[in-house]
């Protein structure tokens, strides 16, 4: 997922050829909506909550948290998402942080960790018909194995781990998981696919397998599973659907003949609406909304994808992490309650509020407009309702289109909804066809839905204004339930949870993962972060108790925590104050793509069984490291002039208390 921000914009800019299913008479285009047309079955639009992208959402206060959830999942209100995929957490960084595991050992079991259970339950509460999916990114060390000296999750323990997650969702939350994947963007293993399928059957679980969620940029490799399916009947029986990632990234390798020959549903199981780069620019209609308007239609017209899932439903992670602004919505300041309902919400609504999973695409009434733009038509199973989603992105002129109903499709009245620069998901017209025919003029740079359905709606909830991260900041962990993560702290690897303090009363924050999990990709040392990217002068302090050989780290002026950058270090980009249990210490400056610089180092005696206080003080270009009230070094450096803070450790137990950021 570290490549998401490079998504290609060229497919939006290209001129689109005339569909063979349309007729043009001069400037007049005629589209026949034929209910007897063949076409694949629509299986929904959704999103993937993974890579810690939803981390800060659960920290939002009410009523803003419920308002956000309504905009995402409530039918007839906002995006009305029809699918939700979640990560099976493993306490390992999977893009913008680590999501906690429900089974850290073979005997451990806790379905209250993290936020994905909660998110699925909230989505289901709003839409009981939502299609739920799961997919692992990494895995706890105990479920893994090594093949040719490489870590792998493929084996009986991992199959059991996935099945346990699915079974627990039903037992503890009443949730039915419809689909599971294999291993996100990693080479698949045919024997494991069959093994997981057999176990799902043995447990009498209805969950089916989608495979194989391959790496973007390797589109040809993503379709290899289709060729294997055609050669292996047992593999074909084990897989329900073929899922690929970011298919629009390489239009030189379209859907393959072998994929179509399998007869399997084809899904864009991870996709992206944004142009990448600046998180503010990406949220504007000319980029994110326009791209997504074209992408939803294109995925069926050019690839025969019947489901598309966006990473992610919401940007609820800090902006200095990898792939900023991946979400359909933007909400990463829970202390303020602010959120942004982006145009991508309403572009999604142009399909989800008018078409339901189980409807059928009408291929002879779906195609490309002569100037630029696309349209798809779908009908309900009983043919009583139908909808046309038509976009004119990059069109240079208006399209005057004549429509004709055939093949059992009828309508006494149809309704037209519009989104563009001047309208946001607005009901703009009603038309009464005469003898099953009518005309309409479609303006450029717009998305329209024509539908016989009713019941659509546009949420009207408004957020409070945005406010910066609270300063000064102090956290003693007494208000956080045991076993949970404090508000606003975002784990980037490992798991920082509140436990009873050792050595004094009250609650403390403890890093609890003692074995490095099997990683998905980049894997820094465990740290948890928060704060404001604009902070300059501040005093960062925390009490620390060494419970193992793990070091303690205090990090400040973090200007980037995108550990997926090339040359990423074990730490984020910033100043790192590290102390080992034997008293060895160092003040480091880390930058991605550059060697770590040791600004100062030394050793002092300390009693490992006592609590100690670490501090980093930033004033102008001066950085001071203090331990137990004694300054260890003061260094002048302008490498990192501002940024967030973090505390960290190694892969073992260590406790923290009285975390503060003060003037």
As a percent range, the share of strand residues is 25-35%
Q: What is the SS-derived class?
A: alpha+beta
Total of DSSP H or I helical runs spanning 4+ residues: 11
What is the CATH fold-level name of the largest domain? TIM Barrel
CATH homolog superfamily of the largest domain = Glycosidases
Please report the distance between the alpha carbons of the first and last residues.
37 Å
List segments where confidence is low: pLDDT < 50 over at least 5 consecutive residues: 1-26, 275-286
Provide an overview of this structure.
There is one protein chain. With 663 residues, the chain is of the alpha+beta class. It has 2 domains: 40-356, TIM Barrel, CATH 3.20.20.80; 473-662, Exo-inulinase, domain 1 (Jelly Rolls, Sandwich). It has 11 helices and 39 strands. An 8-stranded parallel barrel has the order 3-4-5-8-9-10-11-12, surrounded by 6 helices. α4 runs parallel beside α5 (190-202) and α10 (285-301) packs parallel to α11.
Notable traits:
663 residues, alpha+beta, TIM Barrel, Jelly Rolls, eight-stranded parallel β-barrel, eight-stranded antiparallel beta sheet, 11 helices, 39 strands, 16% helix
């Amino acid at each position: 997922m570290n490549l998401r921000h490079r998504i290609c914009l060229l497919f939006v800019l290209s001129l689109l050829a005339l569909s063979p299913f349309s007729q043009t008479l001069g400037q007049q285009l005629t589209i026949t909506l034929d209910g007897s047309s063949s076409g694949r079955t629509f299986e929904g639009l959704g999103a993937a909550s993974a890579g810690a992208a939803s981390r800060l959402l659960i920290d939002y206060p009410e009523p803003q948290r419920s308002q956000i959830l309504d905009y995402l999942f409530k039918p007839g209100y906002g995006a009305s998402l029809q699918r939700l995929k979640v990560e099976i957490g493993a306490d390992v960084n999977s893009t913008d942080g680590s999501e906690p595991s429900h089974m850290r050992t073979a005997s451990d079991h806790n379905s209250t960790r993290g936020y994905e259970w909660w998110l699925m339950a909230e989505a289901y509460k709003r839409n009981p018909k939502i299609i739920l999916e799961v997919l692992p990114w990494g895995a706890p060390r105990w479920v893994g194995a090594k093949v040719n000296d490489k870590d792998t999750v493929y084996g009986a323990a991992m199959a059991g781990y996935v099945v346990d997650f699915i079974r627990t969702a039903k037992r503890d939350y009443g949730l039915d998981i419809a689909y599971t994947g294999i291993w996100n963007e990693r080479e698949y293993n045919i024997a494991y696919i069959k093994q997981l399928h057999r176990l799902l059957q043995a447990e009498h679980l209805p969950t089916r397998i989608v495979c194989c969620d391959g790496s973007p940029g390797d589109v040809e490799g993503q379709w290899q599973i289709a060729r294997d399916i055609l050669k292996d009947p047992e593999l074909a029986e084990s897989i329900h659907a073929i899922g690929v990632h970011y298919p629009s990234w390489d239009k030189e390798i379209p859907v393959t003949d072998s994929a179509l020959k399998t007869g399997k549903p084809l899904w864009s199981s991870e996709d992206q609406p944004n142009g990448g780069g600046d998180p503010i620019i990406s949220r504007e209609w000319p980029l994110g909304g326009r791209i997504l308007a074209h992408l939803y239609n294109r995925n069926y017209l050019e690839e025969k994808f019947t489901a598309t899932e966006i990473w992610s439903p919401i940007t609820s992670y800090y902006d200095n992490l990898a792939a900023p602004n991946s979400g359909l919505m933007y909400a990463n300041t829970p202390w303020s309650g602010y959120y942004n309902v982006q145009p991508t919400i309403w572009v999604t609504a142009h399909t989800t509020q008018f078409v339901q999973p189980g409807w059928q695409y009408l291929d002879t009434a779906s195609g490309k407009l002569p100037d630029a733009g696309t349209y798809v038509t779908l009908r309900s199973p009983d043919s009583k309702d139908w909808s046309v989603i038509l976009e004119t992105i990059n069109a240079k002129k208006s399209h005057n289109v004549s429509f004709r109903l055939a093949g059992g499709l009828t309508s006494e009245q149809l309704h037209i909804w519009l989104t563009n620069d001047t309208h946001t998901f607005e009901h703009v017209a009603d038309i009464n066809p005469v003898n099953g025919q009518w005309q309409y003029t479609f303006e450029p740079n717009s998305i329209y839905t024509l539908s016989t359905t009713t019941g659509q709606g546009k949420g009207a909830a408004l957020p409070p204004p945005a406010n910066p991260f609270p300063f000064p900041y102090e956290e003693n962990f007494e208000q956080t339930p045991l076993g949970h993560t404090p508000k606003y702290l975002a784990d980037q690897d490992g798991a920082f949870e509140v436990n009873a303090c050792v050595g004094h009363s009250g609650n403390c924050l403890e890093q609890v993962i003692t074995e490095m999990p099997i990683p998905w990709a980049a894997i820094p040392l465990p740290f948890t972060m928060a704060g404001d990217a604009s902070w300059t002068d501040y005093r960062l302090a925390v009490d620390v108790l060494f419970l193992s050989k793990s070091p303690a780290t205090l990090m400040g002026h973090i200007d980037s925590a995108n550990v997926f950058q090339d040359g990423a270090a074990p730490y984020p980009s910033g100043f790192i104050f590290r102390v080992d249990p034997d008293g060895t210490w160092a003040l480091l400056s880390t930058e991605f793509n550059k060697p770590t610089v040791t600004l100062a180092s030394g050793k002092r005696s300390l009693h490992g069984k006592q609590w100690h206080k670490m501090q980093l003080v930033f004033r102008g270009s001066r950085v001071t490291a203090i331990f137990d009230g004694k300054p260890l070094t003061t260094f002048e450096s302008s490498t990192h002039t501002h940024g967030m803070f973090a505390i960290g450790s190694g892969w073992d137990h260590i406790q923290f208390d009285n975390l503060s950021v003060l003037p």
